[in-house]
Amino acid sequence: MIDKNLELFDCGHRACGGCGAALAARLVTKAAGKDTIVVSATGCMEVFSTPYPETAWKVPWIHSLFENASAVASGIEASLKKQGRTEKVVIMAGDGATFDIGMICISGAFERGHDLTYICYDNEAYMNTGIQRSGATPYDASTTTSPAGKCSFGNKRPKKDMPQILAAHGAPYVATASIAYPADFMQKVEKAINTKGPCYVQVHAPCCTGWGFEGNQTVAIAKLAIETGLWVNFEMVDGKVVKAKKVVRKPVEEYLKTQKRFRHLFKPKRQDAEIAAIQAMADKNAEKYAIDIKLKKE
Amino acid sequence: MALAVGCRARPGKSRDNKTGSWRVFKPVFDREKCTQCGLCMTLCPEGCVHETEEGFVAPDYTYCKGCGICAEECPGTAIAMKQEEK
Amino acid sequence: MMEITEGSHAVAEAVKFCRPQVIAAYPITPQTHIVEALAEYVANCELDAEYITVENEFSALSACIGASAAGSRTYSATTSQGLALMFEVCFNVAGMRLPIVMSIANRALGAPLSIWNDQQDSISLRDSGWLQFYAEDNQEATDLHYIAYRVAEESSVLLPAFVCFDGFILSHTYEPIDMLTQDDIDRFLPKYTPSERLDAADPISFGMYATPEYYHEFRYEMDRALKESKAIIHKAGKEFGQMFGRDYSAMVEGYRLEDAETAIVALGSICGTTKDAIDEMRDEGKKVGLLKIRVFRPFPTEDVAKALLHVKRVAVLDKNISLGAKGAVTLEVKDALYNSGIPVKGYIIGLGGRDVRKKDIKEIVALVEKGQGDMFYGLRTEVL
């Protein structure tokens, strides 16, 4: 049972006001509870929560390097097993640490089948170093290493499909979630922790600084990602999608328009072909995960 | 304070960093309009909104950065963002 | 009990006696026989450890970080490219003050690829904060593992340690070894009980970052701990000698050095060949001696100076090269003898498995007597 009043991620951390990742850290620790060891990868969350000696973590926490959180977690899990201890091991890493630099370590840990839960807080770029593109950056997003320009619409590739990759490793439980749906997110974290073996939860965590919107819009924008079908909340058990959040879909531009990283799609002139391409991605998502709620015809 | 071996620390020290000083806009909670649904408590990235002893919901201004998510997401109109007076 | 055993197997058995609780390793020539033997011990319930078969060396040492921080005695082994892949993790382990012990079956670094011995791999990690022990033979290779754990885990040290022994030359060679027993080691090496660990009952944050206000001091503390570990090495080595008859209290060891005019300084298996060459030169009336360096980090600067102050000249053998400068050992010895007026010459020898024989040692002595040195020794000029 999740104790809603449990606060294991303390005040005083240095995240930007309205930070989606900070909210994710709070929700994860709430859902995981006290008997948890958290392993962080280098990144925004690690930096805003642990300048020596001011740690925000009220659970045992460790950070080693950018790319090795899963390997460190593997060692912790092995050690706990050897000692007969029962704490759960939870990794919290950003999308850069997950989709890109940590990929080998994640693959190794999932293949070996350690009992751990990997939470990727996905803010879709390297925020800590100044908003560079990662393998999780969406199509056409302008970042500092995929800037929109006279001959570029920004990031040229769609997001890597991490959940499918980890499901293919045989992960018993894989889920996507959003900070806009905290109860759902916490339930998924709890389920992942209580499922034996390596489990993966990828949570959409908008970054006001990196995406270019006001801090009070973080939750609203995360919700729009779901409502447009650009982010799908689903659960996979033993490699099969068992549940996906259904929505009455809105056009993608309602989401795109809210963020500076997509501004070049609307100004100085509207890029219909690009917006249509992104709409097609949302349509494909909707079909793949069957998320559309069909309204009755009048 | 002697340096901790290996750059480690026990919990509590992050509270030395009073992030309330960052605030430009201040969330003001209207007790009359608040239904105590608790959404603001759940969604606060600081975890600084809590139930007071009198049973109302209030932010801890020592740490509230004034991001305004609580005001934005309040299902009613119980939270208003007001310019911080310094 | 004397046994004729392969070096790697002897090391594996010694590691078993240390009762590591978590082992994480990745196979690489010439380290493989160690990790295979350990896997067999675990498979046969002769060693009660979690053995993590990681996907590369980077993850091997990273997994060791997690296991060590969670409170387990932890072990790994590697060499060459594997150690190079661990570069980032090595610095991390030391900075996090985790007393992991790792065997290094020394091997050259590519390119060009070479599976054969030199000491470029561990020497290249000299600035990482790990203790570095170098074994002359397989007896020493086994014994140094017990010493390494004892010293690394000491509360005033809390730094990781390499036990280096030359790949193939030692790792794949059968030698008679006096193997100690589990009871012996249980008396010498206490159970690992870290004062801090990852534990829900007492949450601690490990691996925080340091601002410029603190970083400088954290590095100072590491350097201090490493330097102060000299006293702990001395104590542990002496106690080991009292218990088992082989005294490792000294970080350097002289051989026929007392009245020597020419001193050779070396580390690792080349010391054995050098001793034989010295015996022959002594028979010819040449006053030559050896100073063997057993501990390269912390570097025993004072001990080296003290041991060499009476000689007329010093020849340092380096199985490594700091390209664009000199061999790493040469630089340290020159530092130790600075102001002494004693000429120190360095010789780069045996890179990538090039055999070094007694006649080579004699030639080097002839060179240093003529004042020639600071050079690659034994170059095949016909291929240049």
Task: Please characterize this protein's 3D structure.
The complex is a heterotrimer of chains A (about 300), B (about 90) and C (about 375). Chain A has about 300 residues and is an alpha/beta fold. Chain A contains 11 helices and 10 strands. Chain A has helices at about 20-30, 45-50, 70-85, 95-100, 105-110, 160-170, 180-195, 210, 220-225, 255, 270-290, and strands at about 35-40, 60-65, 90-95, 115-120, 150, 150-155, 175-180, 200-205, 235, 240-245. Chain A has an 8-stranded mixed beta sheet, sandwiched between helices. A two-stranded antiparallel sheet of chain A has the order 5-6. The radius of gyration of chain A is 19 Å and the shape is globular. Chain B has a domain at about 30-85: Alpha-Beta Plaits, CATH 3.30.70.20. Chain C folds into 2 domains: about 1-245, Rossmann fold; about 250-384, Rossmann fold. Helices cover about 40% and strands about 20% of the residues of chain C. Chain C contains 13 helices and 16 strands. Chain C has helices at about 5-15, 30-45, 55-70, 80-85, 85-95, 120-125, 140-155, 180-190, 215-245, 270-285, 300-310, 330-335, 360-370, and strands spanning about 1-5, 20-25, 50-55, 75-80, 100-105, 130-135, 160-165, 175-180, 205, 250-255, 260-265, 290-295, 295, 315-320, 345-350, 375. Chain C is globular. Chains in contact: A-B, A-C, B-C. The interface of A and C includes residues 87 and 105 of A. Strand 2 (about 60-65) of chain A pairs parallel with strand 9 of chain C.
CATH homologous superfamily classification of the largest domain in chain C: Thiamin diphosphate (ThDP)-binding fold, Pyr/PP domains
Distance between the termini of chain C: 50 Å
At CATH level 3, the topology of chain A is: Rossmann fold
Number of E-state strands of chain A: 10
Question: Could you say how many structural domains of chain A there are in total?
Answer: 1
Cα-atom Rg of chain A, whole angstroms?
A: 19 Å
Radius of gyration of chain C: 20 Å
Cα shape of chain A = globular
Q: Name the chain pair whose interface involves the most residues.
A: A-C, 43 and 44 residues
- Helical amount of chain C: 25-40%
